[in-house]
Write a structure and sequence with these properties.
Number of helices: 8
Distance between the termini: 44 Å
Largest sheet: 7 strands, mixed
Order of helices and strands: HEHEHEEEHEEHEHEEHEEEHEEEEE
CATH architecture: 4-Layer Sandwich
Structural class: alpha+beta
CATH superfamily: Endonuclease/exonuclease/phosphatase
Mean pLDDT: 93
CATH class: Alpha Beta
Radius of gyration: 19 Å
Shape: globular
């Protein structure tokens, strides 16, 4: 059964690779969970011991250099496919500003002149969200973070006890407001709580609720604001976190005021995936857009199709995919079964195209 599903997925991915040419004046906006982009130095107060030279991963400067080169090569390969660098690229699982400084200076991507926005968050592992941007295309006006809390009034029932809630720590959502192509624009970069133990749906729904409330507040404060929400949501587009609490809709036609357009919902139904777990393909690496981008005013930025059927894309060329062994056909990750694979990430990048 898994073999037949893999053949079907491969056929769909080949179909999806027949993308429309990216217009010269378009903007590529994407997201990439880079899977444990740690340096080799201990950050006080963070549980990063496994990514130290004497840790269980034997995380040496040589391995760190290979990891950096690999991630940069993925960004470069996307530029070659699309004919332009990402204007905005959200990242998850970066340890600190040092790894971002090293990344944007890599020779593979130096010509893009990427700058970055990063704020330390309280995650116990020390992994944060960040945003790479090209200052020639995006102007940063304001940076904020949204911390997680349990102050819901929507009836979410939490599994954690009050004491566990007080001790709970996770990634903050990174919020960057500015101008893209001269238009008011905001991007939210998320890494929602884990599915570990097949749990955490309540936490992810609360995280989505926090983001959605902030979007509505920002739209009221900044009329005409265009919004992109991206991240590793640890849920699929049809799950309650995205469909209910972020108001993600499959089609533009069905959107009501306040809804977000969720282009990867259709893609997931069509068999696409950005990460694989126990033989099942998921799209956790989701990008949603506000109504002002889904149905833009004439002459302003809006989302456009990446292929004949879809408004989103999963970047999954063969070099990013393990070609043999037990995990053949899945993303080529950094470690597998404790063995250093010199891979890239356990997730594929995703992106959308915006154009006037």
């Amino acid at each position: 059964m898994r073999y037949r599903l893999s053949l079907l997925l491969t056929a769909l991915l080949i179909l999806g690779a027949c993308t429309h040419p990216v217009p010269e004046d378009a903007y590529v906006v994407g997201f990439y969970n880079v899977e444990n982009l740690f340096d080799t130095v201990h950050d006080r107060g963070k549980n990063d011991q496994s990514f130290l030279p004497d840790g269980e991963n034997n995380w040496t400067p040589d391995k760190y250099e290979k990891k950096q080169a690999n991630i940069a090569s993925v960004i470069q390969a996307m530029q070659k496919q699309n004919g332009r660098w990402h204007a905005l690229l959200g990242l998850a699982e970066v340890e600190n500003a040092r790894v971002l400084q090293d990344l944007v200076a890599r020779p593979e991507i130096a010509e893009a002149d990427y700058h970055f926005v990063h704020v330390e968050s309280p995650d116990v592992r020390g992994i944060d969200c960040a945003l790479l941007y090209r200052p020639s295309q995006f102007k940063v006006i304001e940076t904020r973070t949204l911390p997680f809390d349990f102050k819901t009034d929507s009836g979410i029932v939490f599994e954690k006890t009050p004491q566990e809630q007080a001790e709970f720590r996770t990634r903050d959502v990174l919020c960057v407001r500015g101008e893209l192509g001269g238009e008011p624009f905001a991007v939210y970069v998320c890494h929602f709580p884990s599915r570990s133990g097949n749990k955490g749906s309540d936490l992810r729904c609360r995280a989505a609720e926090i983001v959605y409330a902030d979007i509505r507040a920002q739209e009221a404060k900044h009329p005409g604001l265009k919004v992109v929400v991206m991240g590793d949501m640890n849920d699929n587009p049809e799950d309650a976190c995205i469909a209910d609490y972020l108001h993600g809709r499959e089609t533009i036609a069905e959107m009501q005021p306040g809804d977000l357009f969720s282009p990867f919902l259709r893609m997931h139904k069509d068999g696409f995936g950005s990460e694989e777990y126990h033989g099942e393909w998921n799209i956790f690496d989701i990008i949603l857009v506000s109504g002002s981008l889904a149905a833009p005013a004439d002459g302003t930025l809006g989302i456009v199709k990446t292929d004949t059927f879809h408004y989103g894309a999963v970047f999954n060329p063969p070099f990013l995919t393990q070609q043999e062994g037990r995990f053949a056909g899945t993303p080529l990750r950094t470690f597998s079964g404790g063995q250093f694979m010199n891979g890239y990430s356990d997730h594929y990048p995703t992106f959308i195209i915006l154009n006037k």
